[in-house]
Amino acid sequence: MILDDIGYVQHSRDEMEVLFTFLAERYERRSVILTTNLVFSEWDRIFQDPMTTMAAIDRVVHHSVILDMMGLESYRARAASAQKATPTPPQPAAS
Q: Which residues form the IstB-like ATP-binding domain (predicted)?
């Protein structure tokens, strides 16, 4: 299961309880890939409760591989820069 951009959009407490339950159920049973722009110290913004936050982080980091992508250029930003750098051909004049 891939969960992309966790924490990007604020969700209700009930929705975050569902997410925690999902992570707890998958813990040590199935793989989960998470992407987020938040460091672990900011995960309280996701789960809105310190105990739930710590329990979620504990389950996520146990047996995990963490890839820190800080400082790497976004592929979307790179594509936008490349597109801007490509000159557009002049448009024919309207007759």
A: 1-80
